[in-house]
From TrEMBL:
Domain Leucine-binding protein residues, every copy: 44-383
Keyword annotations: Signal
The keyword Signal appears for this protein: yes
Classification via InterPro entries: BCAA_transport (IPR051010), Leu-bd (IPR028081), Peripla_BP_I (IPR028082)
Name this polypeptide is given: Branched-chain amino acid transport system substrate-binding protein
């Protein structure tokens, strides 16, 4: 009798216990789902458009490396802070192949499919302009570390860490006038390259305004590898300086051919030159070119950046990596400033936040995406690149 009663009493208890366990499991499951969902929400998506194939692949690699380096620093601290909630920075790198058409497709994919809040990249002006058009229509901020074309200024959703071609051209003209004795200059530029055409024309206008002489102003078609026709015309005018506002691959061919044809003067270059390649070429001894950054500059935080970058990447930072690092970190600062991952709000943050103290200098975007920055003139001397001059253009 007692045994039967005990069995009858224990049955409801077992049912209650089973129900309690089931409830706990359901709460845990729902909590897990909620946690997973929170993790997905707590991400900050960044698109990276860089040329990682073709003749400009090294520049694209610099951009990807630097954005990843910046993201790792932020993520090591828990992520970018948005209203007290840490959001992990997630990168979506794509290869533009150096093509504006491909860059356009990639930008659309990043915005519409991957839902990125911002895009960083554009190693060339033509690619940057293509991305800028997409970002303007979609109202997504775009930051380019190095594209200097003046045309980018018209896009309100586009920002840059570099100076513009107007600033660069004026600085080069000033340097030649004041430091190279206003010698006669010849120019060889790419007729089908918007960056090259713009910078060559702006330099010509500035130099002539300064009283300088442009002895020759020659161009070549895209895809050319032989420049004898143009170089012979140039050398016939006996210039002391040859300005080559072209990318490094083309410049190396042009310099070698110019030397073979008898040019003994100074080569003058722009921010499209990559000193890593030029130092291997004897033709560039005693050449000058513009830079956006220079190792060892007395800028707060620069020494720490250089040391840490080398420690984590095994190589010294390049100019483009320093610029890209500043692009990424100024972006994260803007996100924190406005407490939002919304693209339009981030745009407002980039415009309204206080000047950003970066490793390439302190800058703000002046309501038009163009920072006020110094132009550094580098000199290839004794197998090294040394700082020759610093010019500020008002």
């Amino acid at each position: 009798m007692n045994i039967k009663k005990a069995a009858m009493i224990s049955c409801p208890k077992i049912i209650c216990l089973a129900f309690l366990c089931l409830t706990i499991m359901m709460v845990s499951f729902l909590g897990g789902c909620s946690s997973d969902k929170a993790k997905k929400i707590s991400e900050f998506k960044v698109g990276v458009i860089a040329v990682t194939s073709g003749e400009l692949f090294r520049r694209g690699t610099y951009i990807v490396t630097a954005v990843r380096y910046a993201a790792d620093i932020v993520n090591a601290e828990g992520g970018v802070d948005i209203s007290g909630v840490k959001h992990k920075v997630v990168l979506y790198p794509v290869d533009s192949g150096g093509s504006p058409e491909i860059a356009t497709r990639m930008a659309l994919r990043l915005i519409e499919k991957d839902k990125v809040s911002v895009i960083i990249g554009g190693a060339s002006s033509s690619v940057a302009l293509a991305v800028a058009e997409v970002c303007e229509k979609k109202k997504v901020p775009f930051i380019t570390p190095v594209a200097s074309t003046n045309k980018l200024t018209a896009f309100k959703y586009s920002f840059r860490v570099s100076y513009t071609n107007s600033v660069q051209a004026a600085a080069i003209a000033t340097f030649v006038s004041e430091s190279l004795n206003r010698e006669s200059v010849a120019v060889l530029y790419g007729a089908d390259n918007p960056y090259s055409v713009e910078l060559a024309t702006l330099f010509k206008n500035n130099y002539e305004k300064n009283g300088g002489i442009i002895a020759a102003f020659e161009n070549y078609p895209e895809g050319a590898r032989e420049y004898a026709e143009q170089l012979k015309k140039i050398i016939a005018t006996h210039p002391k300086i040859l300005f080559l506002p072209n990318n490094t691959k083309k410049v190396q061919l042009q310099a070698r051919q110019a030397r073979k044809l008898g040019f003994k003067g100074i080569f003058l270059g722009s921010d499209s030159w990559d000193s890593v390649d030029l130092l291997r070429n004897d033709a560039f001894k005693n050449s000058y070119f513009t830079d956006h950054w220079f190792p060892g500059l007395p800028i707060p935080g620069d020494a720490e950046f250089e040391a840490d970058f080398k420690k984590k990447n095994g190589v010294e930072a390049t100019e483009l990596e320093a610029l890209t690092y500043d692009a990424a970190m100024s972006l994260f600062a803007a996100v924190k400033y406005v407490h939002s991952a919304n693209p339009a709000t981030i745009h407002d943050g980039l415009v309204d936040m206080p000047p950003y103290a970066g490793v390439t200098g302190t800058f703000d975007y002046n309501n038009n995406g163009d920072p006020d920055k110094d132009v550094f003139i580098s000199h290839i001397k004794n197998g090294r690149v040394v700082l020759s001059d610093t010019i500020y253009v008002e």
